[in-house]
Amino acid sequence: MSEDLSTWASREYRALPWVALLQHRLAFFGLMLLLVMVLLSIFGPWFGQDPDAADAATIDQAPSGTHLFGTDHLGRDLFARVLLGGRLSMQVGVFAILIAAVLGGLYGLVSGLGPRWLDHLMMQLLDTLLSIPVILFAVLIQATGEPGVLRLSIAIALVSWMGVARIVRTECQQLMRTDFVLASIASGSGALQLVARHLLPNIARPLLVVLTVSIGQALILEATLSFLNLGVPANIPSWGNLLGSGMRAALSGAWWAVLFPGLAIVLAVVAINFIGDGLRDAADPRRRLRL
Prior knowledge:
Strand content: under 5%
Largest sheet: none
Number of strands: 0
Order of helices and strands: HHHHHHHHHHHH
Shape: elongated
Number of domains: 1
CATH class: Mainly Alpha
Radius of gyration: 23 Å
CATH architecture: Orthogonal Bundle
Mean pLDDT: 80
């Protein structure tokens, strides 16, 4: 009997979402990699060289023991600038997805809970917006004003909320046909009570997976806009700005000027995608037991 209880307890423990996430090898690797990158971005510039200190004697210097990633066209330490740029790029990505979660969540809830004619109208509008190329939409938003961190985050959010809205709307419509939601409606639950007690808790897990992957997409979009000089101002280091400013130096042989900022973007996006895969598996009870 005790052996059966211990086996059941072990199975139930392994079925917990956070335990399954940590047992997912790729997700665990992604978590560790992303944690290291975040810590380096936050604390690295404080202990390394000054990212804004220019030195004419070390312009476009190759990687060495003094400058791990080499120097840029002004003689500034590229390692310190990549770490500082990661801090801004990650801030923009996370902030943009938080805004997108609020906008898309509200839009999806209204569409999923509203009458059929309203849902049809809102989905037609959403399909129209989705037909516009993402990069073109973001460029049009950014080109209408002065570049800045807040404006860049809002621009990325305005092209990212539509996917969130579609997920929330689909999940709402599926939940509205379940027995426990129908029973809650029959018992007299209002719309706000229905959303708070039944819809949001059940939408949270698939939505978390989508938002996690969307952060990686936001990082790529930030880098693309900054590379095109439509992101943050050029004097503020971000991974996209470093790529843009390093292209000219790379054409003259300074390959490190684009290699290390590009590698940082790739590692961050891969880590986030690994975490998203782990969250997807951990959110499914059948997948959790197989991990």
